[in-house]
TrEMBL record:
K(+) binds at residues 243, 245, 279, 282, 284, 288. This is Ribokinase. One of its GO terms (biological process) is D-ribose catabolic process. HAMAP family: Ribokinase (MF_01987). ATP binds at residues 183, 217-222, 248-249.
């Protein structure tokens, strides 16, 4: 069984269902409210575990009920939580508005997620040697990501970065990134490009790391891969989406699991799309992510 380490966030998701997402300055009524275990890091760890990978989660939660619930949820999904620490700051929170068409917007409270430190990485270096891949997001301190990816490069471990939420970032991280997986908004902010993705050139991107694999998720349109100096589209599946909260995290789970076994990036993208296509037909974050067998069974129909 392949072994993967996710270094990332754990948040309690507060999900409010609405008819339409509110406009700036607008007050609206919500239809209902739900609480789910989430955080991009935790969601991706669950997705990887459901793809039959031996998955470890490194992160930080508060010494509170939400922290306990998040750890227990990971354990229930067969994620190893021995590298999660507790601190005095409250567990991270995410306020998520989901409209009837499945679109969403999210506000994150960092909380304990920013108690991850470079020392946590350094003291676990010997153990990190045992992993085949490290997966990170931007919901934790960037110096932690950079430290982990530098060690990964030294040890020839594959690195995957989901730059979400998009913030001012240390470009050096990309020098140690094998697979960069933003969504369309994050891609535009990362590269400061406003033209249509099909018209983007190598000069527009100006990638310093020529070996990086750039994959851009585009929601219902599909996924774009930068290959042979242009973006190539992998079309999405046609499904009835009701909640896209964990779409990106589900894609990453499917993509990482497949690329580690097949080493075929086209195949891995299509499998990631399959996983995400099922997830968006279900409510919630972690509970919406299908198992590996569910994905195989669904596409036999």
């Amino acid at each position: 069984m392949k072994k993967v380490l996710v270094i990332g966030s754990l948040n309690m998701d507060i999900v409010i269902n609405v008819n339409k997402l509110p406009k700036e300055g607008q007050t609206i009524y919500g239809n209902n409210i739900s609480y789910f275990c989430g955080g991009k890091g935790a969601n991706q760890a669950v997705a990887l575990s459901k793809m039959n990978l031996e998955t470890y989660m490194m992160g930080c939660v508060g010494n509170d009920d939400n922290g306990d619930k998040l750890i227990n949820s990971l354990k229930e999904n067969n994620v190893n939580t021995s590298m999660i620490k507790k601190c005095n700051n409250p567990t991270g929170l995410a306020s998520i508005y989901v409209s009837e068409d499945g679109s969403n917007n999210i506000v994150i409270i960092k909380g304990a997620n920013y108690n991850n430190t470079v020392d946590d990485i350094i003291k676990n270096k010997d153990f990190i040697k045992s992993f085949e891949a490290i997966v990170c997001q931007f919901e934790i301190p960037q110096d932690v990501i950079l430290s982990a990816f530098k060690i990964a490069k030294e040890l020839k471990i594959k690195t995957f970065l989901n730059p979400a939420p998009i913030i001012k970032y240390d470009e050096e991280i990309l020098n140690y990134t094998d697979y960069l997986i933003p969504n369309e908004t994050e891609f535009e902010e990362l590269f400061k490009i406003k033209k249509p993705i099909q018209k983007i050139s190598e000069n527009d991107l100006n990638l310093k790391n020529k070996n990086i694999n750039l994959i851009v998720t585009y929601g219902s349109k599909g996924v774009y891969l930068w290959k042979n100096n242009k973006f190539n589209l992998f079309e999405s599946r046609k499904v009835n989406a009701i909640d896209t909260t964990a779409a990106g995290d589900s894609f990453i789970g499917g993509f990482v699991s497949n690329i580690l076994s097949s080493n075929n990036i086209d195949e891995a993208i299509n499998f990631g799309i399959d996983v995400a296509s099922i997830a968006v037909t279900r409510k919630g974050a972690q509970q919406s992510i299908p198992s590996y067998q569910e994905v195989l069974d669904f596409y036999k129909k």
